[in-house]
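To: structure subgroup
Subject: Chain for Friday's discussion

All,

I'm putting the inputs and outputs inline so they're searchable in the archive.
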Amino acid sequence: TWKWVVGPMFLYLCERLVRFWRSQQKVVITKVVIHPFKTIELQMMKKGFKMEVGQYIFVKCPAVSKLEWHPFTLTSAPEEDYFSIHVRIVGDWTEGLFNACGCDKQEFQEAWKLPKIAVDGPFGTASEDVFSYETVMLVGAGIGVTPFASVLKSVWYKYCHDATNLKLKKIYFYWLCRDTHAFEWFADLLQSLEVQMQERNNAEFLSYNIYLTGWDETQATHFVVHHEEEKDVITGLKQKTLYGRPNWENEFKTIAGKHPGSRIGVFLCGPEGLADTLNKQSISNSEADPRGVHFIFNKENF
């Protein structure tokens, strides 16, 4: 038995030693941004840190717990000179981090008072392959939108600096939320992209649909009255917020009709049930002919 056990135990020990070594490397919190509905953004710097879009890291804050490591998706782009995560305050550990960063205080927090942070990673995800396709569908559910913040930022940087060599030509973005709480920080990014794309006369590059899945018809009626206004009353975007859940069969058929003969990447960060639905639609809407349209499904669950 020991011959079968010693190998895995040795690899496990090596992994723990590497994580311990990484945890000792200095991480500097350069900025803490408080977003509405108790969501904080931590912007950090670490020597030698390199990332790709959609990757995630493990974070430990000894001031909160000396043993706990928690995974967070990176919301910054590789082109930025820092890396960032968005943390929604939903439990004891995140509440402790919120207080340790001084976010519960009204006065300005000095940088030297910010807690020590240990970072392990980054680690790869399916979202890294987004630049391998000319057309992509990005589907985020709730806080699962965070990897696509990194993707959309990176797309914008690449588009501004070298649009002609960017293989990605069209993005279909879907965001499903139960309520409006998560809109606050991400809508700002979409507004910025929307304005900048219009200024460059390429508003069709990014097509997005935002769905409020937790609202019924009576709640939505009040906002339907304002449907004719130039901007959406919830997000402030030109694209109006939709209510309920998307008809995925119609969405896939419409996109397939617009991009015949293409390989279309479908990327999901969301629950397993939605992954099953999108996987089935990707298979059923792909043609048997190698020259026809094909949907390639990629997922990461939380």
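Points worth raising on Friday:
The two ends are 35 Å apart (CA to CA).
The chain has a mean pLDDT of 79.

D.
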